[in-house]
Amino acid sequence: MAAAEEDPAVFTSTALPSDPRLMATVTNAYLGTRVYRDILHVNGVYNGAVGDTHRADIPSPVSVRMMAPSMDVLAETFTLNTRTGTFIHVLQSTDYTAMHQLYAHHSLVHLMAFSITIRRSAHTTHPITIHLQTPFVLKSQDLDLNQGPDFQGAHYVYGQTLVPEVEGGPRPTVHMLWTPVPQALILHEEEQERSWEFLTAVAESKEDVKRSYSQGLDLIAAGSLHPSHAHAWSMLWRGCCIDLDGPLPLRQALYGCLYYLLSAIPPQGNPGFLFHGISPGGLSNGSQGEDYWGHVFWDQDTWMFPNILLFYPEAARAILEYRIRMLGGALRNAQEQGYQGAKFPWESAATGREVCPEEIYGAQEIHVTGDVLMAFEQYYYTTQDQKLFREDGGWNLVGAVAQYWCSRMVWSQEEQCYHIKGVMPPDEYHHQVDNSVYTNVVAQQSLNFAADVARDFFIPVPEEWVDCAKKIKVPFDEERKYHPEYDGYSPGELVKQADVVLLGFPLLHPMSSEVRRNDLEMYEPVTELDGPAMTWSMFAVGWLELKEVQRAQSQLNKCFSNITEPFKIWVENSDGTGAVNFLTGMGGFLQAVLFGYTGFRITRSSLRFSPALPDDINKLNVTGISYLGNKLEFTITREEIRIKVTTSPRDPLASPLEAVLEESGQRFLLHEGQSVSFPTVTGWIQK
After folding, report:
1. What is the DSSP string of 611-626?
2. What Cα–Cα distance (Å) separates residue 77 from each residue in 66, 88, 180, 226?
3. Are 317 and 308 in contact (CB under 8 A)?
4. Nearest alpha carbon to residue 499 among 601, 424, 573
5. Where's the Glycoside hydrolase family 65 C-terminal domain (predicted)?
6. Which residues are catalytic?
7. Is the predicted pLDDT of residue 2 greater than 50, yes or no?
8. pTM for the full model?
9. 10-239 maps to CATH 3.30.930.10
């Protein structure tokens, strides 16, 4: 049992990974870097035209490493503490302990900081010197940098990005203030212990950067800069956690995935924060030629978003607001391809225009438009936030997507149904195919959702939406009882990644258990083993749905070959190629637990549950599930489900929730602060 006592949320090693791309990342919603990397990135600040646009590299003053002056170090450790969002490097010798803490402040997102503390051992009296190694150079290939006057002891630099994404597009200016870093720190003989604090502030105006830096200095003076950051993380974990009584590697993987995903979301209680989406490798990556240049894909909406939504709907809303702000670009994309409505780009950056460097994806991988709308649908059913749709631009986006799908379909006289031709499905090994089943179903779902919202708002539903949704072709093999991936797909053809299996989840396309099983069995053996990391999570969800828990677990276990040591950084492909800090894979893995083990499904009228736990997991505890303004805690064992409402809406008119069991029809009213429990069966939560 000794291993169980190890904290699954703290990753410690005596050595760093040999590949610097696999270093821990420290990011918040606005700033991000990899530990010991000489550059940092700013949310939404890109440089370069169209397919060349990438996250602008900004020289990083926090890239500092402690070095001991002589060979007197007995021990050295490197730790990522996901509970406090802090990277810690410790040097230990007979004479002293030196500790370096680095973090991107979670709630004061314009600040990154590090501190160094030296404490002498009882028997020593001589001065102690720690050298600081930094690759910091004031130059950038992406910004026209200028030095300004010092401010409150900090150096000041500012610069505008060089090339806009599209002609006349934004060219933001970045302003940075930082505490100068000396070559060495000395603990004098009369001092027992001393800490030095180093602050970096980044913003897009001179006023904002000065205000942020001054705020940081005030917190340092009060001794509360790092405590306020750690407190923000502790509040974040209090509102959302997945833990289980099970294998340590699984618990560590869950904490790692949650840490990297939560690092990327806007801080709580800051609704005005302008969020620019989440790229597959997060803010720490995305320089030119790396991690898809920091562009935003369906990875955000399909793979990361559902986890964020169930825990932090306010952050989920910020992701949708990014898509709403990009609507102008999406309208232009559709127009340029000869269609109506809005076509979201395969790769998005600062304008919503297509910035994929290879034309084929932007032209053919059109399912992304439906994926964006699926996120809006999940959000609407989970929150009933009508304001987003009525007042904040959501309805315009929904209507424009419906219009796009109608214009993208052609009527087949022969088959008497609508076709969508010439597409690339999620399985990118195939292109220029007709009637990709995933694309057609996601289009159908977009149209049905648009019609539902229109009815809720008493807006007349265009006849065309209903007709196209009803009559679109959904390829199905009546003989073999499975969904072919597209017209003309031959069983046994190699598939790059999860595609048809996504019909069952997250699309919730109606089908019998027999068809669901056939889809899983048809595609599991022909899916690329070294393909993208999120694939096997979706096979796991499918098998869990059919209550084949061991088969599900064997799929989920494949994901562990994408997790690197010691900081649990994911790689896109298990052979180490592709993006690093691959949040997409982490998002899929979290969904396998959050929607797989629990059986959670977001529907128009309820949050369904139908748990299935593998043999090596005795108990699952999920804290902070958000549903219709309530916060819920679920504790699930093989025998029992316990549900507790920890917070309910302050609105006196809000209806309370109830749990309903499917087979018996039993109902349990859910009151704030009280727990209800019942046998582990299928049921749902509703108003």
Report:
1. ----TT--EEEEEEEE
2. 12, 8, 26, 20
3. no
4. 424
5. 601-647
6. 428
7. no
8. 0.97
9. no
